[in-house]
Prior knowledge:
This protein is α+β, with helices and mostly antiparallel strands. Helix content is about 25%, strand content about 30%.
Amino acid sequence: MDLGRKLLEVREAAKLSRVQLVGLLKRKGFDVKTYTICKWETSISKPTVEAFLAVCDICKVSDIRQTFVGKRCLRLYDIPVSAGHGNYLEDSNYEMIEVDDLVPDSADYAVRVNGDSMMPRFVDKQIIFVHEQPVLEEGEIGIFCLNNDAYLKKLGRDYLISLNPAYDPIPIREYDNFKVFGKVIG
């Protein structure tokens, strides 16, 4: 990875001149000159970690690792989602996993399947990728929270539906605590 070249690309993608970047960095408390930016972008010197993060913030770099290293990481939640009878998905328990280009760009996180209710499409212990979105259309497969249990299911009208016919649909009643975590995309 050539840090200087990537810094130049990031600045140009943000449509900022070196002079503009210097001004924005000064607002954040960094006393840099235009020639300093030039030195960073030609790899003569490197910014401090703090200055680097400020440049990323100014240039709206959302995924630093992917932008500068070319590798993309997603959260893989430790608690699997149930393709069976339900598990609670806690957002604080996850590990970061590196993913390749086969994972859709719209994937926001990953979960591990627990059970066989979504067979044959999804199997026990399979890692699936999810795009966070608060609403799904009927017939779409997603990750749902129903009364504090996380499920991998197909959304039906007032039901969560398993693909495996051995499992009955799970009713969603008006008094239930129901939330859509996202759509399964891979």
